[in-house]
Design a protein that fits this description.
single chain, alpha+beta, Aminopeptidase, seven-stranded mixed sheet, two-stranded antiparallel sheet
Protein backbone atom coordinates (compact mmCIF):
# COMPACT_ATOMS: atom_id res chain seq x y z
CA UNK A 1 0.00 0.00 0.00
CA UNK A 2 1.32 3.37 -1.00
CA UNK A 3 1.98 5.83 1.82
CA UNK A 4 0.40 9.25 1.65
CA UNK A 5 2.71 12.03 0.63
CA UNK A 6 3.50 14.49 3.35
CA UNK A 7 2.77 18.11 2.44
CA UNK A 8 5.86 20.06 1.55
CA UNK A 9 7.20 22.37 4.26
CA UNK A 10 6.54 25.51 2.25
CA UNK A 11 2.87 24.58 1.83
CA UNK A 12 2.55 24.37 5.62
CA UNK A 13 4.27 27.74 6.06
CA UNK A 14 1.98 29.40 3.53
CA UNK A 15 -1.08 27.88 5.20
CA UNK A 16 0.02 29.14 8.63
CA UNK A 17 0.77 32.63 7.29
CA UNK A 18 -2.58 32.76 5.50
CA UNK A 19 -4.39 31.70 8.67
CA UNK A 20 -2.62 34.36 10.73
CA UNK A 21 -3.31 37.04 8.12
CA UNK A 22 -6.98 36.09 7.96
CA UNK A 23 -7.19 36.25 11.76
CA UNK A 24 -5.51 39.66 11.84
CA UNK A 25 -7.67 41.02 9.02
CA UNK A 26 -10.77 39.64 10.72
CA UNK A 27 -9.82 41.24 14.04
CA UNK A 28 -9.07 44.58 12.39
CA UNK A 29 -12.33 44.46 10.43
CA UNK A 30 -14.30 43.66 13.59
CA UNK A 31 -12.61 46.50 15.52
CA UNK A 32 -13.10 48.85 12.57
CA UNK A 33 -16.84 48.13 12.41
CA UNK A 34 -17.22 48.49 16.18
CA UNK A 35 -15.38 51.81 16.13
CA UNK A 36 -17.39 53.03 13.14
CA UNK A 37 -20.58 52.39 15.12
CA UNK A 38 -19.29 54.43 18.06
CA UNK A 39 -17.97 57.49 16.25
CA UNK A 40 -20.34 60.42 15.77
CA UNK A 41 -20.62 64.14 16.33
CA UNK A 42 -22.65 63.68 19.51
CA UNK A 43 -23.45 66.73 21.60
CA UNK A 44 -20.70 68.78 19.93
CA UNK A 45 -22.69 68.89 16.71
CA UNK A 46 -21.18 70.19 13.49
CA UNK A 47 -18.67 72.82 12.47
CA UNK A 48 -19.99 75.94 10.72
CA UNK A 49 -21.30 75.27 7.23
CA UNK A 50 -19.35 78.34 6.15
CA UNK A 51 -17.12 80.98 7.68
CA UNK A 52 -17.52 84.71 7.36
CA UNK A 53 -15.43 86.48 4.72
CA UNK A 54 -12.00 87.61 5.95
CA UNK A 55 -9.28 88.75 3.57
CA UNK A 56 -5.52 88.55 3.96
CA UNK A 57 -2.97 91.20 2.97
CA UNK A 58 -3.30 90.20 -0.69
CA UNK A 59 -7.10 90.16 -0.78
CA UNK A 60 -7.40 86.36 -0.48
CA UNK A 61 -10.64 85.34 1.24
CA UNK A 62 -9.61 83.04 4.09
CA UNK A 63 -13.06 81.47 4.26
CA UNK A 64 -12.59 80.08 0.73
CA UNK A 65 -9.07 78.72 1.14
CA UNK A 66 -8.86 74.93 0.89
CA UNK A 67 -5.66 72.91 0.88
CA UNK A 68 -5.03 69.54 -0.67
CA UNK A 69 -3.34 66.91 1.54
CA UNK A 70 -3.75 69.05 4.66
CA UNK A 71 -5.91 68.34 7.72
CA UNK A 72 -6.85 71.34 9.87
CA UNK A 73 -8.33 70.00 13.08
CA UNK A 74 -9.74 71.75 16.12
CA UNK A 75 -8.95 69.61 19.17
CA UNK A 76 -10.54 70.24 22.55
CA UNK A 77 -10.85 68.57 25.94
CA UNK A 78 -13.85 69.82 27.90
CA UNK A 79 -14.05 70.03 31.68
CA UNK A 80 -17.08 67.73 31.82
CA UNK A 81 -16.25 65.07 34.41
CA UNK A 82 -13.57 67.05 36.24
CA UNK A 83 -13.05 65.44 39.62
CA UNK A 84 -13.93 67.15 42.90
CA UNK A 85 -15.41 70.22 41.20
CA UNK A 86 -19.00 71.28 40.61
CA UNK A 87 -19.56 72.46 37.05
CA UNK A 88 -22.70 74.02 35.67
CA UNK A 89 -21.55 74.40 32.07
CA UNK A 90 -19.06 72.67 29.79
CA UNK A 91 -15.96 74.65 28.90
CA UNK A 92 -12.98 73.77 26.73
CA UNK A 93 -10.21 73.15 29.23
CA UNK A 94 -7.67 72.29 26.50
CA UNK A 95 -7.85 73.93 23.09
CA UNK A 96 -5.53 73.32 20.14
CA UNK A 97 -5.50 74.04 16.43
CA UNK A 98 -3.67 71.29 14.53
CA UNK A 99 -2.36 71.52 10.98
CA UNK A 100 -1.25 68.16 9.58
CA UNK A 101 0.53 68.60 6.25
CA UNK A 102 0.73 65.17 4.59
CA UNK A 103 2.58 66.49 1.55
CA UNK A 104 5.48 67.95 3.52
CA UNK A 105 5.25 65.50 6.43
CA UNK A 106 4.83 68.19 9.06
CA UNK A 107 2.45 68.75 11.94
CA UNK A 108 2.04 72.17 13.57
CA UNK A 109 0.10 72.63 16.81
CA UNK A 110 -1.14 75.95 18.19
CA UNK A 111 -1.93 75.90 21.92
CA UNK A 112 -4.63 78.40 22.84
CA UNK A 113 -4.83 79.20 26.58
CA UNK A 114 -8.20 78.39 28.10
CA UNK A 115 -8.39 81.86 29.72
CA UNK A 116 -7.69 83.75 26.50
CA UNK A 117 -9.50 87.09 26.54
CA UNK A 118 -11.57 87.44 23.35
CA UNK A 119 -12.96 90.95 23.77
CA UNK A 120 -16.21 91.79 22.02
CA UNK A 121 -16.27 89.25 19.22
CA UNK A 122 -19.56 88.07 17.73
CA UNK A 123 -19.53 84.81 19.72
CA UNK A 124 -20.83 84.99 23.30
CA UNK A 125 -18.04 83.63 25.50
CA UNK A 126 -19.64 84.26 28.87
CA UNK A 127 -19.44 86.92 31.57
CA UNK A 128 -15.65 87.28 31.39
CA UNK A 129 -15.23 86.89 27.61
CA UNK A 130 -12.94 83.86 27.82
CA UNK A 131 -12.35 81.58 24.84
CA UNK A 132 -13.19 78.48 26.87
CA UNK A 133 -16.72 79.82 27.37
CA UNK A 134 -17.58 79.94 23.66
CA UNK A 135 -18.47 76.24 23.59
CA UNK A 136 -21.42 76.45 25.97
CA UNK A 137 -22.31 80.17 25.83
CA UNK A 138 -22.42 80.70 22.07
CA UNK A 139 -25.81 81.08 20.43
CA UNK A 140 -25.60 77.82 18.47
CA UNK A 141 -26.79 75.41 21.17
CA UNK A 142 -27.20 72.46 18.81
CA UNK A 143 -23.62 72.78 17.54
CA UNK A 144 -21.45 74.09 20.38
CA UNK A 145 -18.28 73.20 18.49
CA UNK A 146 -19.37 75.72 15.83
CA UNK A 147 -19.25 78.44 18.49
CA UNK A 148 -15.65 77.60 19.36
CA UNK A 149 -14.64 77.26 15.71
CA UNK A 150 -16.17 80.63 14.82
CA UNK A 151 -14.43 82.29 17.76
CA UNK A 152 -11.03 80.92 16.69
CA UNK A 153 -11.63 81.93 13.08
CA UNK A 154 -12.65 85.45 14.07
CA UNK A 155 -9.67 85.87 16.44
CA UNK A 156 -6.90 84.16 14.46
CA UNK A 157 -8.19 83.76 10.91
CA UNK A 158 -7.82 79.97 11.18
CA UNK A 159 -10.50 77.78 9.62
CA UNK A 160 -11.00 74.26 10.97
CA UNK A 161 -12.08 71.56 8.53
CA UNK A 162 -12.55 68.88 11.18
CA UNK A 163 -12.70 68.57 14.94
CA UNK A 164 -12.33 66.17 17.87
CA UNK A 165 -13.78 66.88 21.32
CA UNK A 166 -13.02 64.64 24.28
CA UNK A 167 -14.25 65.16 27.83
CA UNK A 168 -12.10 64.65 30.93
CA UNK A 169 -13.63 61.24 31.64
CA UNK A 170 -12.61 60.11 28.16
CA UNK A 171 -9.11 61.50 28.72
CA UNK A 172 -8.78 59.48 31.92
CA UNK A 173 -10.16 56.36 30.22
CA UNK A 174 -7.72 56.64 27.31
CA UNK A 175 -4.70 56.74 29.61
CA UNK A 176 -5.98 53.95 31.81
CA UNK A 177 -6.68 51.72 28.80
CA UNK A 178 -3.10 52.37 27.70
CA UNK A 179 -1.93 51.29 31.15
CA UNK A 180 -0.54 54.75 31.85
CA UNK A 181 2.38 56.42 30.10
CA UNK A 182 5.85 57.54 31.13
CA UNK A 183 6.33 61.30 30.93
CA UNK A 184 8.91 63.81 32.06
CA UNK A 185 7.41 66.30 34.52
CA UNK A 186 9.51 69.44 33.92
CA UNK A 187 8.90 71.08 37.31
CA UNK A 188 7.58 70.37 40.79
CA UNK A 189 3.78 70.36 41.00
CA UNK A 190 2.22 72.08 44.03
CA UNK A 191 -1.34 72.32 45.27
CA UNK A 192 -2.74 75.73 44.34
CA UNK A 193 -4.59 76.17 47.64
CA UNK A 194 -2.17 74.73 50.22
CA UNK A 195 1.15 74.93 48.40
CA UNK A 196 1.83 71.29 49.29
CA UNK A 197 4.14 69.36 46.96
CA UNK A 198 2.08 66.95 44.86
CA UNK A 199 4.68 65.61 42.42
CA UNK A 200 8.42 66.15 42.09
CA UNK A 201 10.02 67.07 38.78
CA UNK A 202 11.39 64.12 36.86
CA UNK A 203 10.28 60.96 35.08
CA UNK A 204 7.10 59.33 36.31
CA UNK A 205 4.38 57.04 35.04
CA UNK A 206 1.02 58.78 34.99
CA UNK A 207 -2.44 57.26 34.75
CA UNK A 208 -5.68 59.08 34.01
CA UNK A 209 -6.12 60.53 37.50
CA UNK A 210 -2.54 61.72 38.05
CA UNK A 211 -2.28 63.15 34.53
CA UNK A 212 -5.46 65.17 35.10
CA UNK A 213 -3.98 66.72 38.25
CA UNK A 214 -0.70 67.53 36.54
CA UNK A 215 -2.11 68.93 33.31
CA UNK A 216 -4.75 71.10 34.97
CA UNK A 217 -2.37 72.52 37.58
CA UNK A 218 -1.94 76.30 37.44
CA UNK A 219 -0.18 76.92 40.75
CA UNK A 220 2.50 79.03 39.04
CA UNK A 221 3.22 82.71 38.62
CA UNK A 222 2.59 82.44 34.87
CA UNK A 223 -0.64 80.43 35.13
CA UNK A 224 -1.88 79.23 31.75
CA UNK A 225 1.43 79.90 29.99
CA UNK A 226 3.37 77.46 32.17
CA UNK A 227 0.50 74.98 32.25
CA UNK A 228 0.76 74.72 28.47
CA UNK A 229 4.42 73.79 28.88
CA UNK A 230 3.36 70.89 31.12
CA UNK A 231 0.94 69.82 28.41
CA UNK A 232 3.75 69.83 25.84
CA UNK A 233 5.62 67.26 27.91
CA UNK A 234 2.50 65.14 28.00
CA UNK A 235 1.93 65.36 24.22
CA UNK A 236 5.54 64.34 23.59
CA UNK A 237 5.07 61.34 25.88
CA UNK A 238 1.81 60.27 24.19
CA UNK A 239 3.34 60.60 20.71
CA UNK A 240 6.39 58.57 21.69
CA UNK A 241 4.28 55.87 23.36
CA UNK A 242 1.99 55.46 20.36
CA UNK A 243 4.79 55.54 17.80
CA UNK A 244 7.05 53.12 19.64
CA UNK A 245 4.60 50.76 21.31
CA UNK A 246 1.29 50.85 19.45
CA UNK A 247 0.76 49.17 16.07
CA UNK A 248 -2.50 50.04 14.34
CA UNK A 249 -4.43 47.17 15.94
CA UNK A 250 -3.57 48.41 19.45
CA UNK A 251 -4.25 52.01 18.44
CA UNK A 252 -7.71 51.03 17.16
CA UNK A 253 -8.39 49.21 20.43
CA UNK A 254 -7.54 52.34 22.45
CA UNK A 255 -9.71 54.39 20.11
CA UNK A 256 -12.60 51.94 20.51
CA UNK A 257 -12.49 52.20 24.31
CA UNK A 258 -12.27 55.98 24.16
CA UNK A 259 -14.79 56.60 21.36
CA UNK A 260 -17.82 56.65 23.64
CA UNK A 261 -16.44 59.86 25.17
CA UNK A 262 -15.39 61.36 21.83
CA UNK A 263 -17.40 63.71 19.61
CA UNK A 264 -15.92 64.12 16.14
CA UNK A 265 -16.78 64.57 12.49
CA UNK A 266 -13.76 62.45 11.50
CA UNK A 267 -14.53 59.00 10.11
CA UNK A 268 -12.69 55.81 11.00
CA UNK A 269 -10.88 56.04 7.67
CA UNK A 270 -9.88 59.62 8.49
CA UNK A 271 -8.49 58.51 11.85
CA UNK A 272 -6.61 55.61 10.26
CA UNK A 273 -5.18 57.97 7.66
CA UNK A 274 -4.10 60.45 10.34
CA UNK A 275 -2.54 57.65 12.39
CA UNK A 276 -0.60 56.32 9.37
CA UNK A 277 0.52 59.85 8.47
CA UNK A 278 1.74 60.43 12.01
CA UNK A 279 3.59 57.10 11.90
CA UNK A 280 5.81 58.67 9.25
CA UNK A 281 6.63 61.64 11.46
CA UNK A 282 9.56 62.03 13.79
CA UNK A 283 9.36 64.21 16.94
CA UNK A 284 11.39 66.80 15.03
CA UNK A 285 8.60 67.04 12.44
CA UNK A 286 6.03 68.20 15.02
CA UNK A 287 6.14 71.89 15.92
CA UNK A 288 4.20 73.13 18.91
CA UNK A 289 3.78 76.73 20.04
CA UNK A 290 1.85 78.65 22.68
CA UNK A 291 0.08 81.90 21.85
CA UNK A 292 2.41 84.73 22.87
CA UNK A 293 0.95 87.00 25.53
CA UNK A 294 0.52 87.56 29.23
CA UNK A 295 -1.79 88.38 32.09
CA UNK A 296 -4.40 91.11 31.67
CA UNK A 297 -7.04 92.38 34.07
CA UNK A 298 -10.52 92.83 32.67
CA UNK A 299 -13.87 93.81 34.10
CA UNK A 300 -16.56 91.23 33.45
CA UNK A 301 -20.18 91.87 32.56
CA UNK A 302 -21.00 91.41 36.25
CA UNK A 303 -18.73 94.33 37.19
CA UNK A 304 -16.11 92.10 38.82
CA UNK A 305 -12.46 92.05 37.79
CA UNK A 306 -10.71 88.92 36.56
CA UNK A 307 -7.17 88.01 35.50
CA UNK A 308 -7.22 86.53 31.99
CA UNK A 309 -4.68 85.79 29.27
CA UNK A 310 -4.18 88.46 26.63
CA UNK A 311 -2.74 87.37 23.29
CA UNK A 312 -0.03 89.66 21.86
CA UNK A 313 -0.75 90.43 18.21
CA UNK A 314 2.60 91.10 16.50
CA UNK A 315 4.38 87.85 17.28
CA UNK A 316 1.18 85.81 17.06
CA UNK A 317 0.51 87.07 13.52
CA UNK A 318 4.09 86.23 12.50
CA UNK A 319 3.89 82.69 13.90
CA UNK A 320 0.48 82.05 12.32
CA UNK A 321 1.68 83.20 8.90
CA UNK A 322 4.78 81.04 9.03
CA UNK A 323 3.36 77.81 10.43
CA UNK A 324 -0.44 77.73 10.18
CA UNK A 325 -1.41 79.25 6.84
CA UNK A 326 -1.03 78.09 3.24
CA UNK A 327 2.03 79.36 1.42
CA UNK A 328 1.45 82.90 0.18
CA UNK A 329 -1.36 83.69 2.62
CA UNK A 330 -0.38 86.48 5.03
CA UNK A 331 -2.55 88.17 7.65
CA UNK A 332 -1.30 91.30 9.38
CA UNK A 333 -1.68 91.87 13.14
CA UNK A 334 -4.30 94.55 12.45
CA UNK A 335 -6.47 92.11 10.52
CA UNK A 336 -6.68 89.65 13.40
CA UNK A 337 -9.75 89.85 15.58
CA UNK A 338 -7.72 89.81 18.78
CA UNK A 339 -8.59 92.62 21.20
CA UNK A 340 -6.11 95.36 22.05
CA UNK A 341 -4.92 94.83 25.61
CA UNK A 342 -2.50 96.42 28.05
CA UNK A 343 0.19 94.15 29.50
CA UNK A 344 1.00 95.85 32.77
CA UNK A 345 3.43 93.10 33.76
CA UNK A 346 4.84 92.47 30.28
CA UNK A 347 4.24 89.46 28.07
CA UNK A 348 5.94 86.25 26.96
CA UNK A 349 6.97 85.48 23.38
CA UNK A 350 7.04 81.81 22.49
CA UNK A 351 8.95 80.91 19.33
CA UNK A 352 7.79 77.33 19.67
CA UNK A 353 9.73 74.09 19.60
CA UNK A 354 9.53 70.63 18.12
CA UNK A 355 8.53 67.65 20.20
CA UNK A 356 12.11 66.53 19.67
CA UNK A 357 13.17 69.44 21.89
CA UNK A 358 10.79 68.39 24.67
CA UNK A 359 12.32 66.13 27.30
CA UNK A 360 10.73 62.69 27.42
CA UNK A 361 10.94 59.96 30.04
CA UNK A 362 12.53 56.61 29.48
CA UNK A 363 9.85 53.99 28.91
CA UNK A 364 10.56 51.49 31.67
CA UNK A 365 7.94 48.81 30.98
Amino acid sequence: MKSKKKPKWWVIVIAVIATVLLAVVGYLAKTYLELEGLLDTGKAGNLPESYQSMTDDNGVDLSQVNEKDVYTILVAVTDKGVQEEDRTGENTDVLMYVRLDNKNHKMNILQIPRDTYVGDISVDCGVYHRINGAYSNGENKENPIANTANAIYELFGLKADNYAVLDVEGFRTMLNVMGGIWMNVPRDIHDKETGALLFEAGDMKVNGDTAEIILRNRATSLGDYERLELQQSFYAAVFRTFMEQYPIADALQVAKNTAVYLDTDLSVMDLVGIYLSMKELQPEDIYIVRCSGGSVTITGDDGKKAALYGVEKENTARILNEYFRPEGVTVSPEQLGLPDVEFQLGYNVDEGKTLGDVATAEIKD
